[in-house]
Amino acid sequence: MPSKRLLSGMQPTGGAGLHIGNLEGALRQWVRLQDEYEMYCCIVDWHALTTMYDNTEAIAPKAREVAAEYIAGGLDPQKCAIFLQSHVKEHAELHLLLSMVTPLGWLERVPTFKEKRDMLDERGGGDESVSYGLLGYPVLQAADILAYRAHAVPVGKDQAAHLELSREIARRFNRLYGEVFPEPQAVINEMTAVVPGLDGRKMSKSLGNAIYLSDDADTVAKKVMSAFTTPTKIKKTDPGVPENCVVCQLRRLYDPENYSLAWEECRSGARGCVQSKRELIEILNAELEPIRRRRKELLDDLAQLEEILRQGAERARATAADTMTAVRQAMKLR
Ligand code: ADP
Description:
This protein is mainly alpha-helical. The protein has 2 domains: about 220 residues, HUPs (Rossmann fold), CATH 3.40.50.620; about 80 residues, Tyrosyl-Transfer RNA Synthetase. It is built from 14 helices and 5 strands. Strand 1, helix 1 and strand 2 form a beta-alpha-beta unit. The chain is globular and about 75 Å long. Adenosine-5'-diphosphate binds next to helix 1.
């Protein structure tokens, strides 16, 4: 059994579960790490409440979908604990205790707080849509990590700053009450660049530009046919710029051995965008088909999936309960 612990997690929000940006930018790395670490893979359903508090019935089914996608993408429930945050109440107790030692100013400065506040404002919620829980989001995130006394947290290249607050909270707790928490280190995913969405911006569930693991082959085909390419490549013979073309970027990602010939032909005008798109559809669908199939099998047998989540929560709870004993002792709470 590996001795170092790692905590990873994603929110069950958005329209359709995980997209290929989540797969390539996060999940694939977790799959590699599951042999190296004692790993806890959380589906952070309480976090989803910060933006979905008025639509809570969507959260539980979405959480099962994400669990199925974790496994279909290669996480092995025998190797790592896959569980829902809300099934392990220790996260809530630790969140409360940490909230007492986290200065308000630290939270008000978090850029994602400001972004989410503006997003909720745009949805027309007004002042009352911004909850105490939204402000405390990073404290709950720190609790998620520290409940396992995790040594490591995988983060995307763009997200290293997110971990800093959890580290500061751990340091402050340790200073006040004695060393309970290791300072979690970011494990940065250097292997994958940011996956572009169909419109050339970063693929994101909030931008409507994503290819989802739940998309069937026809949907993938339609989406790829609609993707942005080189704007000045109108005729087949016009030169393309693969570096700025979504289709070429995805081709490189999914066909690393052979993409360069396709890129040269695009650049020289020997091939058009329609050919590039058709080939990419084949390559993408071949790659995604086994994941889609496994995902469907898992969602067709919800009883088995619930059992996986129950066992995952049990393993997680055992570790988190140990931590809470140490925390209460350190704080002299009896
Ligand atoms: P979204 O932007 O769709 O809301 P999240 O912020 O929930 O995605 O990210 C979940 C994980 O997936 C994070 O680890 C993040 O770094 C990774 N990720 C999200 N979008 C991309 C992308 N387009 N390319 C690479 N990684 C991504």
